[in-house]
Amino acid sequence: MKPLLLIGIVFAVAGCTSLKNDVQEARTPESVPVNLSLSLGGGEPLVKADVSQIKELAASPKFRGISSIRAIPFGDGASSLGGFRLLPGITDDEDSQASADGKTYHQGLIKNNHAHMYSGSNVALPVGTASLLVYGAAVREAAPSGPTDKHLNGSLLENGWAGDAIMKASDLTFSPDPMLSQETLKQEVDAISSGIADVLTGIVNASFQQHYYYEKGERNYTIRWEENLGSSILRRLFTEFTNGGQQVTGAGSNVAHLLSSLYQELLKYDSEDDTPFMLTEGGVDYPTYVDEGKTTAVSYGMLYNGLRDALKGQIDGLVTAGTLTKSNDNKLSFTDADYQDFPEKLGLPAGSAVLRYSNNIGFSPVTEGLDGVAAMDRFCYMPPLYYFVNSSLSTTTDKDIYKFYTYKSENWEAIRSQYRVGKKVEANTTSVAVDSPLQFAPGLMVVTVKSWSNHLSDNDGDAYSYCTAEGTNFPVTGIIVGSQFVQQFDFTPWKHPETGDLSDEYYLYDNLSSEVYLTTATSQELRTLVFPTPKNRDIYFFLELRNDSGKAFYGAEGIIPTDAYFYLAGTITCPDGERVFNNDTFITVNCVVNTLENAHISVPELGDPHMVMGVEANVNWIDSASSYVILD
User: Fold this and answer.
1) What is the Cα–Cα distance from 541 to 581, expressed in whole angstroms?
2) CA nearest to 192, candidates 338, 332, 348, 369
3) Are 617 and 38 in contact (CB under 8 A)?
4) Which pLDDT score is estimated for 295?
5) DSSP bridge pairs for 71
6) Closest to 386 measured CA to CA, from 624, 155, 547
């Protein structure tokens, strides 16, 4: 499973010291150099594990380090005492040391007490500082820039940082990072969606014209694929190709599989033999037009075969033109990688790209959240792994406070108890401890999945038709979580100061690289980071799976082709007065799949009346997301 450590910056407000609404005079007080100490908590020989390591399910996960830390000093007012302080990162090597102020300091966490002390040469705090907002970005995992990096490390948008200027905590917000945040990306999506739709439209509008003689003369007979073809094979292929006028996947790889399936069906029949396409469930009618002086006879079989050849010719023409590439086993793919890998290449789930067929028009993209489909610009990346704390301070004038950190028997509370002088920075303060340990800004969602039976029914109405949930038939490829909103400084959902309204809702999409499959055995855990959610709000989510069973089946909106992605919806009921997701906490959601008849070919708008539940979610509520491991 991929590591999911995310980066970014978190914001909090001065903790135990309340921030009043009155605005402090805009001036920067005198600053004094201090030794500043932080803790990751855990006490004894334990320390919070990096969430990315938790997601890897490592046997002995280790703290990975924090790349940079920002600390905003506050006094007794609502405004900061100057701008933030940018502090060096904390390494993952507790034995790494550096010298400053005539002393040797650990660059990582100190063993056993899991604290970190910054020397006075690195930190100066204004006189009067009573609390700090501290934010730390976890070290990023190496990855190519763009969607790959953001899926791996997470991303969010930071708002309100004022550099060296005085700021208010209420000015700081964190926004989900939309996958289509740039106008150029939106234009690219529109162009590719329309291009894929045009390819399908050219095929579905194929026609065949037969010239023939009859008793009154001669004429041309034109047959189009969308015309009523009775119960012929071409009619079945048309229904499968257009999904009966319902939603059709617009993802490049899925469309390529759809084209391959059609092409291989067309190749099954010899163009010189009209029998296969003449056969119907109830027999076939032979309309024959004969003039005594002519020899032309026209049958449905002749017309159907001509149309079949026209369809095949249309696809062959796309191969000749370089739009499609055909393999030796007659499988088709888009030659342009931007088409073939759309929309996954942009970070989006395959089910966010949707097309719909209309008679006499062809295919067109479904955009802007129409037809109950989630709008593509609503999908966002997971939040990064941030540490933050909103805390009061303890101070001392002891110039040798560092000695307390080297005692292996000491924990953080024992160390902090040595800061006995006061709760504010004074002119003679030498060392400051941030009272509360750093905590995780996001929450953690842990998911397992299993099938109640290895035989799952679908939606075709045949009691004897079922899908087999075993082996690698149905890989779980992603998780989508709703109710992701802009966060305020303390990582709770932001509300408009005048209306009290939440921001626009986003759908978090985590594309998993782990090998997890839907079977009758409970899967290994899938883990994703999430933004804290509003109180008293039920949370909808989707499991993304792929149909690798080799058999198409019928879901909520029609056919789920082979190799296509599909989505099973679930809901988490919020306890009264609580939040489903909080920072520094996690819940386990055990999903049971009872049927595939509610499988969606696209991602519905969460909460849409047409959205049907596809999984039964059993939730275990856990008090804390913090995982502790031994540092040895």
Assistant:
1) 13
2) 338
3) no
4) 46
5) 85, 134
6) 155
Confidence class of residue 555 from pLDDT cuts 50, 70 and 90?
Answer: confident
- Residues whose CB falls within 8 Å of the CB of residue 249, separated by 6 or more in sequence, listed in order: 255, 258, 350, 351, 353, 354, 355, 561, 564, 565, 601, 602
Sheet order of strands, 354-358 included: 247-249, 354-358, 362-365
Beta-sheet pairing, 616-621 with 558-560: unpaired
Of the pLDDT bands very low, low, confident and very high (cuts 50, 70, 90), residue 176 is: very high
Q: What's at 230, amino acid-wise?
A: G
- pLDDT tens digits, residue range 236-282? 888 888 887 777 888 998 899 889 989 988 888 654 444 444 333 33
- Which residue matches tokens 């390819």? 199
Token pair belonging to 586: 């996690």
User: Are 258 and 315 contacting, i.e. CB atoms less than 8 angstroms apart?
Assistant: no
Integer CA distances (angstroms), 177 to 231, 377, 444, in order: 49, 10, 18
Of the candidates 503, 343, 441, 448, which has an alpha carbon nearest to the alpha carbon of residue 6?
A: 441
- Which pair of tokens denotes residue 560? 């789920």
Which amino acid, 63?
F
Pairing of the two strands 156-159 and 247-249: unpaired
Contact indicator for 118, 35 with CB cutoff of 8 Å: yes
The CA-CA-CA angle for residues 413, 417, 420, to 5°, reads 155
At residue 508, what is the residue type? L
pTM of the model: 0.81
Q: Which residue has the tokens 């039920």?
A: 538
User: Among all chains, which residue has been given the structure tokens 């009067």?
Assistant: 128
User: Which tens digit of pLDDT belongs to each residue from 13-67?
Assistant: 233 332 222 323 334 568 888 888 888 765 333 334 444 444 333 333 456 778 8
What's the pLDDT at 209?
78
Structure tokens at 433: 């401890």
- What DSSP state is assigned to residue 600? B
pLDDT of residue 10: 28
Both tokens assigned to 444:
């953690």
Rg (CA), the chain: 31
Q: Are strands 443-451 and 455-457 parallel, antiparallel or unpaired?
A: unpaired
| Terminal CA-CA length for the chain | 25
Share of the chain above pLDDT 90, in %: 23
DSSP β-ladder status, 97-100 and 103-106: antiparallel
Q: What are phi and psi of 496, to 5 degrees?
A: -60, 130
Cis peptide before 343 (omega within 30 of 0): yes
Element (H, E) at 247: strand 247-249
Specify the residue for token string 């229904």. 239
Helix (H) or strand (E) holding 55: helix 51-55
Tokens matching residue 240: 């499968």
Grouping H, G, I as helix, E, B as strand and the rest as coil, residue 569 is strand
Confidence label for 424 from pLDDT (cuts 50, 70 and 90): very high
CA separation for the pair 189, 365 (Å, rounded)? 10
Which structure tokens are listed for 548?
A: 């690798």
Q: Do the beta carbons of residue 287 and residue 300 sit within 8 Å?
A: yes
Closest by CA to 167, choosing from 67, 28, 15, is 28
